[in-house]
Each structure stands twice: as C-alpha cells, then as structure tokens.
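tokens incoming
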C-alpha cells in the first residue's frame, strides 16, 4: 500500500547518513533492533510519566509493552509499542526533517574515524539510532497513534532514498508500529528465534516487557537491578544476576554495588568472580565490563573503565552522563571515562580490603586465585601502586601455612629490625632449606618467602612498605639485623685457619674454573656448607628472574660461591691430599647442590652418577672408628 502523499525530502545530513548506513558492510547489523526497542522504551517511559500528571490520555489501561512479530514468508518484521505515539506532523519532523546535530556529528566521525564498526555500535548515542534500520530494510513503514486524544493515526514510509512520505493511516491502539521489509541479504532476521536471541543480548534490561510473536511470555528477563538502590536488592538477586551474566555455577567471591548521583550519575554492579578463567559456557567471550548509558548497552566489553590488573572483574556500568559521541577521539568522553575509572578502581580496592577484614577464608581464596593480578598491578601501576599493598599476602618462614599481610609482618617485627626480609625461590620447600636463611632461622627472624614467578615482577614496584625497605636475604652485601634482643652469637665451631682456607679456595677455583665468578669465605652460614650469591654490582636477583621469565635464552650471570669455614665438611675437605679422588667429586657436588637449592641447576638428574660414585667411596673406606 504505497503512500499517495507527496514525497518530503530528508534533511541533507540524514540523506548522507542513510547513504552510509545502506552501504555499510557492518557485520553486526542486528543492533538495529536494539535501537528500535530503545526508542519504543523511551516512548513507554514518556507514557508512564504522562499518566502521572494527565488524565485525558488515549487508552490509559493499555499494557505498557513492546511486541515483535515476524512474517517469515514476506520477510517483514513488526515492532509495536504502546508508548506516546506520534501524530502525522511529529512523524514528519522526528523522522527526517528536524535538524539533528547528532547526524552531523556522526558524519564527521565517519569521515575522520573511518571505524565503521565502532560507529554503528554507538549510533544510538548520536541521537540517530532510528536510521540504523536501513542497514537491513528494503522499506520501512512507521504507523502511529498518539496518546493525545482527538488526534488521528498516521504513517510514515521510506525506502532509504532521498525522500519519505507521510499520510493518514488505520490504527486502533495507541503507540507506534514499525514494519520492516528486510533486504535480500538480511533475511536471517525473519526468524523469531534469531530475534529472541538479539533481544536477550542487547535489550535484556529494558524496563517494559518485550514479547515475541503471539506468546505472552516476556523475553527480556530482568529489570536493571544496578539502577536500583542497594537497599532494595536482595542477596539472591545479586547472585542471580551474576549467574545470568557469566553463566557461572559458583557464587562470586564478592560484589560491589555502587550508586552515585553526584558529581556523576553512575550505577555500577561489579563482581569478583569465583575464579579467573571463564567457563566454557560463559557468554562473556572477552575481558571487560558491560557499559550502558541509561540502560542501553553501548559497549559489550569495555576495558577503559578499569586498570588492566582488575580485568578479571565482571559486571555492568551504567553512566548517564556519557556524551552522545563516545568515539575515541572525544576528549570529553575520555575525561569522563577516566573519572569513572578512578572511582571504580578505588571502590574495588576498598571492597577487597573489606573482604580481607570480614572473611579471611574467602580472602585467602581470592588471593590464591587472583593474587597474580594484584602483583602485576603493583609492578606496572606507576602512580597508585601503594593502594594495592594492603591486598598483598605471603607465606613466611615462621608462618608457612598462613597468608600474612605486610601489616602483620611489620607488627611482628623484632625490636630493632628495620627491614622487611624476603627470599626468592622456586617453591616453598626448597626455599625453606635455603642457606641464605641460616642466620635468620637461628635468630628467629621472620622472612617472607616469594616463590611465584610473578613475585619478582611485583618486587620491581614494591621496594618499601611504610618506612621499611624490603631486603633480599640473598643479597651478598646484606647487613645482618642486630636487634637488641637478638641472642648472643652462639660460639661457632672453630674456623679453618686462614692459610688452609686460602689453599682450599684455590682448589675450588682450579676445579670450577669459569663456572663461578669467585670463591670466598662467608660468616653468614651456620648449618649450610656453601651458598651462591651474586657478584657485587650485578643485576639483582629479582631482575634476573624477570629476565628469565621473559627471555628463555637469558643466562643467569655467574655466581660467587661462598663457603662456610666453620663447617666440618669444609675442614675435612681441606685435609684431603691433592690427588685424592674424592676431592673433585666433593667440590663438584658442593657446587651443584648450591645450584640446586637456588633453583639454578639445569639438570639435577645429571648429579646421580657422581652421587653414586661418592656413595661407593664412602662404603669402600674402612668404617669410621667409634
Ligand atoms: P533518539 O532516540 O536518540 O531521539 P532516534 O533516531 O532513535 O533518536 O529517534 C528519533 C526520534 O523519533 C525520537 O526522538 C522520537 O521522537 C521519535 N521516535 C522514534 N521511535 C519512536 C517510537 N517508537 N515512539 C515514539 N516516538 C518515536
Ligand atoms: Mg533512539
């Protein structure tokens, strides 16, 4: 039923806009439905509001709802609402002749940006969302009956070329009906199933019921709970929303519902998920938050609103003040996003601190699963890393089973202790036996054990907590703590004479050659025979580990072998004659054991033939007398 009325020309910029949309190769054309539903929802909201104040409206008892139907044969989709509707004049102005500043902005952005995909994503933001229908439509007819009494139904018709027509029409119920004849290449949308899917994806949180076909079953399931007051939302609703969002089975570790009116109107509902990895069913395919403005989804995976180390956070942000044009060039949008990001980041950190305080067991779970993200944040976040320090947990030599915070560590420090001591290693068990700990073990100092690969990264950013520097106990130039209540040095067994020791050092050097940077005595060891340390002036152990992580071929610099001149083994070794077969075997084994405990041995199994040789030697000897 083509319209007989006289064609009216679209405004110039709308013409250009249509031209771009009709020829766009944009793959996610389905967003046209979101735009039409969003308009219907706006019309329903207005109706809701009008009924509060006006008595004389058309059909006041009509259910406020949206219905979508499909004629699969004709390839026609119909979207109807019972909102405010439009008169004939309103149809003509609203859909084609009013000067929309957004159209101009869209065109400018299309010219400069060229990022069509993103533009189509945000077309609604330019205030020209309606026209996105021409990405899929051969023709569109909008038939409407205004809520104003004594007005008549009218319809608007366009094919996407330069003109449209308006004229009288038949319509009994208040509101707007949009018929879309799908283009050949858009027939996929002539399917209830497909439309249902699209509604679920993009318009699930529209406040009014959306029905598809003849069914009375509401397709959009939930209200936008993030826009409610936290007082009105029950725990089950939070958990249900999380499960709906992520399709996780487990409860989230914590949630954060942030609602603010000033200075920015923001609603955020964020979750610390149960675990970092998404399950295979998850509809969330990437990191990022769902970003809405006034309940309309504008970005499915927004990563600008949180720092990278909080990328595991799931949830929704709805910011009313986002400007129409949120394209990347927009300075205003960028500044606003930065402000929101700051607020949300602080809120998440606070939530985690609170979780740690209220529920240590849950926090331990958080730390075990997400600790690496926090460590990454400390390593990379220049400005604000200190805010993350309270979140960090460690095992320590005195509390190997507990998760100890820096605050706890500092509170337990011995009198006179001025540093926070830590040791790096590959796993808790080998670290526990490390020779670097001899002194600290003997004197009862607590030492933080850092055995995750991310720890070295973290240490790049965590050098000081409050007034206490962090100190690696393996550092060769370490000054030992001399607390007032430190026990008197126990009388160590007598050391090897300097002369004999010098002699032994020469034997070690002759045997190990280039493999070590130096061999020397140390007073730092009590139970251990030897240890490896970095030569003075070399790259710190932390950096070496970082390099090793990022560069497979990185070679750890040669180490200094330090020997304990008080140790019985060293004394006995110096008594062996130069041609004793055991001398090279023991020297090699001392060196390789030291490598092993440092986690630096390239091939531990290679030690086995030598160990066997040593056992044979030990058994071949006369049994030690008495
Ligand atoms: P925006 O929604 O940002 O205003 P659109 O291009 O999506 O821009 O819609 C243009 C205008 O058309 C709307 O502002 C509204 O006045 C009118 N309109 C569109 N759809 C409807 C509808 N379903 N009911 C009433 N008015 C509508
Ligand atoms: Mg709109």
């Amino acid at each position: 039923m083509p319209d007989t009325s006289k064609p009216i020309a679209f405004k110039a910029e709308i013409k250009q806009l249509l031209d771009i949309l009709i020829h766009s190769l944009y793959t996610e054309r389905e967003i046209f439905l979101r735009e039409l539903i969003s308009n219907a929802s706006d019309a329903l909201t207005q109706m809701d509001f009008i009924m509060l104040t006006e008595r004389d409206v058309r059909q006041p008892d009509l259910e406020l709802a949206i219905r979508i139907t499909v004629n699969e044969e004709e390839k026609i989709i119909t979207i109807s609402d019972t909102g405010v509707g439009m008169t004939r004049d309103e149809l003509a102005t609203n859909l084609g002749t009013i000067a929309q500043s957004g159209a101009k902005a869209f065109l400018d952005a299309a010219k400069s940006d060229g990022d069509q995909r993103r533009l189509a994503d945000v077309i609604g933001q330019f205030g020209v969302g309606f026209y996105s229908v021409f990405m899929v439509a051969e023709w569109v007819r909008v038939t409407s009956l205004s809520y104003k009494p004594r007005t008549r139904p009218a319809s608007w018709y366009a094919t996407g070329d330069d003109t449209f027509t308006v004229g009288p029409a038949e319509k009994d119920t208040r509101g707007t009906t949009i018929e879309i004849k799908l283009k050949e290449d858009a027939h996929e949308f002539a399917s209830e199933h497909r439309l249902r899917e699209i509604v679920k994806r993009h318009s699930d949180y529209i406040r009014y019921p959306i029905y598809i076909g003849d069914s009375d079953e509401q397709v959009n399931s939930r209200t936008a709970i993030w826009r409610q007051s936290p007082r009105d939302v029950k725990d089950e609703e939070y958990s249900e929303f999380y499960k709906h969002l992520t399709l996780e089975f487990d409860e989230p570790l914590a949630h954060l519902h942030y609602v603010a009116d000033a200075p920015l109107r923001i609603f955020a509902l964020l979750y610390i998920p149960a675990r970092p990895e998404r399950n295979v069913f998850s509809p969330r395919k990437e990191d990022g938050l769902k970003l809405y403005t006034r309940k309309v989804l504008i970005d499915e995976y927004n990563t600008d609103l949180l720092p990278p180390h909080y990328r595991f956070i799931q949830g929704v942000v709805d910011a009313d003040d986002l400007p129409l044009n949120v394209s990347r060039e927009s300075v205003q949008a960028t500044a606003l996003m930065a402000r929101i990001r700051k607020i949300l980041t602080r809120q998440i950190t606070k939530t985690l601190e609170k979780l740690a305080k209220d529920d240590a067991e849950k926090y331990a779970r958080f730390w075990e699963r997400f600790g690496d993200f926090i460590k990454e944040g400390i390593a990379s976040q220049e400005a604000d890393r200190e805010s993350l320090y309270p979140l960090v947990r460690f095992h320590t030599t005195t509390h190997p089973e507990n998760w100890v915070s820096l605050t706890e560590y500092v509170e337990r420090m011995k009198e006179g202790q001025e540093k926070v001591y830590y040791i790096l290693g590959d796993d808790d068990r080998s670290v526990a036996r490390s020779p670097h700990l001899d002194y600290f073990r003997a004197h009862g100092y607590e030492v933080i054990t850092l055995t995750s690969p991310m720890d070295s990264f973290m240490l790049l950013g965590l050098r000081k907590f409050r007034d206490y520097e962090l100190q690696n106990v393996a550092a060769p130039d370490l000054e030992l703590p001399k607390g007032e209540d430190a026990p008197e040095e126990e009388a160590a067994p007598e050391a090897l004479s300097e002369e004999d020791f010098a002699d032994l050092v020469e034997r070690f050097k002759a045997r190990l050659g280039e493999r070590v940077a130096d061999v020397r005595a140390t007073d730092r060891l009590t139970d251990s025979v030897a240890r490896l340390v970095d030569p003075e002036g070399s790259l710190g152990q932390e950096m070496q580990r970082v390099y090793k992580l990022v560069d497979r071929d990185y070679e750890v610099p040669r180490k200094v072998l330090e020997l304990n001149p008080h140790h019985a083994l060293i004394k006995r070794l110096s008594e062996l004659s130069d041609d004793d077969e055991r001398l090279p075997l023991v020297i090699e084994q001392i060196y390789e054991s030291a490598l092993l405990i440092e986690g630096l041995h390239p091939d531990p199994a290679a030690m086995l033939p030598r160990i066997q040789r040593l056992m044979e030697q030990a058994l071949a000897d006369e049994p030690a007398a008495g």
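note: The first strand starts at residue 8 and ends at 9.
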